[in-house]
Amino acid sequence: MERRLVLLAGVLAFCACDATLTETRPRKSGPVAEVGLIDAGAGRARYALKGPGWLVSKRRKRALALIAKRCGGPALFKVAAERDEDVPETRYTEDDLDATTFLERGHYKVEKYRIMEYECLMP
Disulfide: which of 3, 27, 37, 76 matches 71 by Cβ 3.0-4.6 Å? Predict the structure, then answer.
């Protein structure tokens, strides 16, 4: 029983790398109510490409679900562009480190992410 709990905890920790919306542009309404929306909004989402294929596809589905929620429905957005990008992540800032440590760049962890740029469509 303990072994199953440890395995379950490991799987949950592994799945914790989820999709996120990294940038959003809000909807813009027209000058009067009759005009409606001028811009439906847009933004970027990203998800990690690390791990087995089924996990990466789960992250992609989650990213698409976040975009659909942001835009108001699954038929109200389009993915304008996708690209892979190496994203360095660190828990330290340049101010936290002395010059020699920062120059070594050993504190960075570089991960490969898929960046999806999307546009919301008019409802």
Answer: 76
The answer to whether 118 touches 71, Cβ cutoff 8 Å, is yes
User: Distance (Å, rounded) from C-alpha 98 to C-alpha 32?
Assistant: 54
Please tell me whether the overall predicted TM-score, pTM, comes out greater than 0.70 for this model: no
Query: Which strands, in side-by-side order, build the sheet including 109-120?
Result: 20-25, 42-48, 109-120, 77-89
- Interval 78-98: pLDDT, tens: 999 999 988 776 655 656 555
* Whole-number Å distance between alpha carbons of 117 and 96: 32
Cβ neighbourhood burial of 36 (10 Å; 0-12, 13-18, 19+): exposed
